[in-house]
Design brief:
The structure holds two protein chains of two kinds. Chain A is α/β, with parallel strands linked by helices. Chain A has two domains: 3-88 and 164-262, P-loop containing nucleotide triphosphate hydrolases (Rossmann fold, 3-Layer(aba) Sandwich), CATH 3.40.50.300; 102-163, no CATH class. Chain A contains nine helices and nine strands. In chain A, helix 4 runs parallel beside helix 6. The radius of gyration of chain A is 18 Å and the shape is globular. In chain A, 45% of the residues are buried. Helix content of chain B is 78%, strand content 0%. In chain B, helix 4 packs parallel to helix 7 (153-176) and helix 4 (83-114) crosses helix 11 (238-247). The longest helix of chain B has 34 residues, at 4-37. Chain B is elongated and about 90 Å long. In chain B, 33% of the residues are buried. The chains are: A alpha/beta, B mainly alpha. Chain A binds chain B through residues 63, 65, 84-87, 89-91, 93-95, 97, 99-103, 110-111, 113-115, 142, 144, 162, and chain B through 182-183, 185-193, 196, 200-201, 204-205, 207, 283-285, 287.
């Protein structure tokens, strides 16, 4: 939508001193504190950290599903809410969360229906994105007829269908086994290269973060803070066996050290 | 098809019990008669007599079936003695009441789900409405409506609606509230309008609740229509058959009207069940 404005200099997503305190019954919980990040156009950014470090919360703030209580954040130069209303991003949830009463094609169509695309355009787009995630031929299946990995691919197709420039993914492969995960990671990289989208990806797997990202944001918990931002020196072209290269292992090492330093065993 | 064996078994047990009770309950009259005439009766005579009494305490199943057959197949449906004629009168009030009740129930549920004030303000009244015995309320409704010139079908339909809106509204409130936070968040990320949230999420997700509510609602509607027929002096309808039956001690007529309305209720519920099966199948929700 307004991405060309943000193309050159300005980051797509920029957070300054971002904080969020949840009010709970007994005491306030500081979920995020002083978070500063810049995500550039075309970046693949991973947010990694122990559970409870606020990585999902950060993603939800970017998506304007939660509101920060401190600091500033812009998405495409706007407030997250404005960006959401302009449908600036596609969001992939932890669970595929496909609507069980809709077929796969019907699920992918859901955002298109809401955004008022024409019938022909809808069908074209559904075909295109299902091709992209290798789900052609499953259009008329119901979600429960598909495996977990296929369901998650369908939910990625759904997030891609309306061509938002930003893709926000909240541990999309967390519930899948390692083999399926590897496969989907590879496909996601292909997708990222071919669509040139900006991807923000929450994970708690170090290999996943290193394999996928151009930038790795290491976070710590209580309060959720950014400990370190690691720029990956890996090339954009990444076969699976790049994970055995010394460069890969070195970056993984740095992420691990960052996580360990920040992690307090109270 | 697996259900045939248990259903048959239960039916047979009920019929056997029914015959047993017929014999026991009706034998009092047989013995009294014999006493007055000063004769002894054997067990087989008692058995025979309890099956064919004119006004038995508890009619035997075959007496009821014969009466049912006689008043449906052997009578013209325009005849006042036809159970089909009376059944239709009750059914028309039931259906009208069911439509009004369902519409009202769904509208209330929509309001309650979308409006906090309605949730707190209306929900308690909905529940309170069902704590008033309908038998006490029905004559009032009839009298009030008669005074503004409404009689016949409409007052009965309103009583019927009074009973049927309740399961529908309570069921649909639960149904509309079914979506989990992620399903709602998803639509939020598309900047969906409230109406889209309703039609694309709340409505489809509540379908299983809708059909369950409709089944309870239609049965309640029938009860309401029958109850609505009682205070009107019982001119026509299944309720009238029950009432005239009890005026004149026609137990066979009472029981055949009872069984008749049970069959009617079963047909109505079964019909909704068919639509439910078809709809949920098409939505991929029936597994």
């Amino acid at each position: 939508m307004n991405s060309n404005v943000a193309m050159d200099a300005e980051p797509v997503i920029q957070a300054r001193n971002l904080g969020l305190v949840f009010q709970t019954k007994d005491s306030p919980v500081e979920a995020l504190k002083d978070v500063n990040i810049d995500i550039e156009q075309g970046d693949f950014v991973s947010l990694i950290g122990p559970s409870g470090c606020g990585k999902t919360t950060l993603l939800r703030i970017i998506a304007s599903l939660d509101k920060p209580t401190a600091g500033d954040i812009t998405v495409n130069g706007m407030t997250p809410e404005e960006a959401r209303l302009q449908r600036a991003y596609g969001y992939v949830f932890q669970a595929a969360s496909l609507y069980p009463w809709r077929t796969i094609a019907g699920n992918v169509k859901l955002p298109l229906e809401i955004m008022g695309f024409s019938k022909t355009e809808m069908n074209e787009r559904v075909k295109k994105v299902l091709d992209l995630v290798h789900l052609s031929g499953f259009e008329n299946k119901f979600p429960w007829q598909l495996s977990g990995g296929m369901q998650q691919r369908a939910s990625i197709a759904r997030a891609l269908s309306f061509d938002a420039d930003i893709l926000l993914m909240d541990e999309p492969f967390g519930a899948l086994d390692e083999i399926v995960r590897d496969h989907l990671n590879e496909q996601l990289l292909d997708l990222w290269k071919s669509t040139r989208k900006t991807i923000c990806f929450v994970t708690h797997s170090i290999p996943e973060a290193v394999y996928l990202s151009t930038k790795i944001v290491v976070m710590s918990n209580r309060p959720g803070k950014v400990v370190e931002v690691i720029e990956s020196s890996l090339p954009r072209e990444r076969p699976l066996d790049i994970r055995d290269s010394p460069e890969f292992i070195e970056i993984a090492q740095r992420v691990r050290t960052g996580l360990r330093m920040s992690h307090s065993y109270e | 098809m697996k259900s045939i064996l248990p259903i048959t078994t239960v039916s047979i047990v009920i019929v056997i019990l029914w015959y047993g009770f017929s014999v026991v309950l009706n034998s009092t009259w047989t013995k009294d008669q014999a006493n007055r005439a000063g004769v002894e009766v054997t067990f087989s005579e008692i058995l025979k007599d309890t099956m064919v009494q004119q006004r038995p305490l508890l009619p035997a199943p075959h007496q009821v079936i014969i009466e049912l057959w006689d008043t449906t197949v052997n009578k013209k449906i325009t005849s006042k003695r036809s159970l089909v004629y009376h059944g239709w009168i009750t059914l028309s009030a039931t259906l009208l009441g069911f439509v009004i009740g369902t519409g009202l129930g769904v509208l209330l549920a929509i309001g309650i789900v979308h409006n906090k004030a309605m949730d707190y303000g209306v929900m308690p009244w909905i529940i309170a409405s069902q704590t008033v015995p309908i038998l006490a309320l029905a004559p009032m409704i009839i009298v009030v409506l008669y005074s503004i010139g409404l009689s016949g079908l409409v007052p009965k339909a309103i009583i019927s609606a009074y009973l049927s809106f309740f399961p529908v509204s309570v069921g649909m409130v639960a149904g509309f509230r079914c979506p989990d936070p992620t399903q709602m968040d998803l639509l939020k990320t598309y900047a969906a309008k409230k109406s889209q949230l309703f039609w694309k999420l709340r409505v489809p997700i509540s379908m299983p609740y809708l059909f369950t509510s409709l089944k309870i609602g239609v049965a309640a509607s029938l009860v309401g229509a029958i109850v609505g027929e009682l205070p009107t002096g019982a001119v026509a309808g299944l309720g009238a058959r029950l009432l005239t039956g009890s005026y004149y001690g026609q137990t066979v007529q009472i029981w055949s009207a009872l069984i008749g309305s049970a069959i009617l209720a079963a047909v109505l519920v079964g019909f909704i069940g068919l639509i439910q099966k078809h709809t949920l199948n098409r939505m991929g929700l029936a597994r």
